[in-house]
Amino acid sequence: MDQITHAVEKIASFFDRPGVEMETIKVGKGIPFGIERVFSPLLKIGGVYGTWGESFDNNRLPSLLEERLGRPLAPEQRLSLADLGFTNRHHIAKLSPQDDIAVEVQIGARLLKEAARVCGWDPSEVEGVLIGMSAPTSDDYIAQICRVAGIPDSALKVAIHKACDSSVAGLHLALNPDMPENKSLKLNIAKTLYGKKVLVGGIEGLSRFIGTSHDPNALQMFGNGAGVIGVIPGVTMKFLVGKTFENYDTDGFLQVQMYYPHAGAKADTMLDVVQTDEHSIRVAGMMHEPADGSSVIMAGPMGMVKLFVRTGVQVVDDVYKAYQAKLAELGMQGKSISVAIVHHANYKINKLKEKHLQNEGIVMAMPWLLSEFGNISAASNMIAFLRQLPSMKLGDHILIDGFGAGTYYDTLAVQLGA
Fold first, then answer.
1. CATH entry, 3-416, from 3.40.47.10, 2.120.10.80, 3.30.70.560, 3.60.70.12
2. Cβ(248)–Cβ(408) under 8 Å?
3. pLDDT tens-digit profile of 2-36?
4. Domain ranges of the chain
5. What is the pLDDT of residues 364-375, one digit of tens each?
6. Quick check: 406 and 285 in contact, CB under 8 A?
7. Nearest residue to 204 via CA among 304, 78, 278, 295
8. Which of 106, 183, 186, 206 has the fewest CB atoms within 10 Å of its CB?
């Protein structure tokens, strides 16, 4: 057993953390929901994160899987979850489609409202909301949660569906006017939101999403989680360099059902970028979908390594080289990346990426910060950012690295404070 195994065994449920505020969502038999607030007075950046549903640790999880699979989990199918960096994940009982919407609208609205307030903003002051989701409960989910949270109809609302990469893709869209998606729109998101109060996050009801999966790996890895941060592009967070990359998962290592509109294959991109009304945009990624109609089918840990590590290392390497060139352009030689906030797919993927990057001469801290949630897809980068936020300083350069099924990659270096 390595160091991470010993460390995660000591971590209790997220709900037991001293800073977590609990409530019950009054749907069905009642669903526990907990959030934690984080704010940096120095950086004027903050947000909230949390999860909902019953907490299942690694010892209790097999009983849930047996219920969902209708059979016991075979010994050879059990993942060594502690070695993968996870101790808990949160699940809810099966609900009706109407109740699923009711739960996640209440949760999403609360997250938006509290993230704004943590930053010292009234929700009515928010001018942009960018939320990443693997599987939205409805096509107008962002509009619904904004309305309930008290965010004006005039606020720009962007829904991003690029699996685990979605929240980082949203931040990238808010900061980088030269992204292909921004250039393809009449309304450039980054130019529109520059200097404005913006909420960016990932809200992932993955317990609902994997409810139709019969894949033991997916059922062990995923759970509910969400994180939303408040930034003012160009003021509290400044874009330095970044790269977005698509690489279709031909082999189907991670197959994901598209529960959102997508126009189909195009010659030059897997993304379908649509302005659905005056104040709403949808960025939808094409997925290798399961042929059996289930929600998700995933290869084992080695399959995930094959899918994400080689290309992921290349994307980070490209961004790091661009970052070094940017430092020379700005006359800031000697500056370095303070910390990398990497999607928590699993601990072994992140450590292997770190090792390969070190072999390329790229050395930076890539802390493992999430263990109480399982893989929570687009929410993980936002939660990891908030957990690292108290140790960040004005003027720090940080790298944010997102990657997900599809396959999609967004990596960007930013400066905290203009």
1. 3.40.47.10
2. no
3. 445 444 445 679 999 999 999 999 998 899 999 99
4. 3-416
5. 999 999 999 999
6. yes
7. 295
8. 186
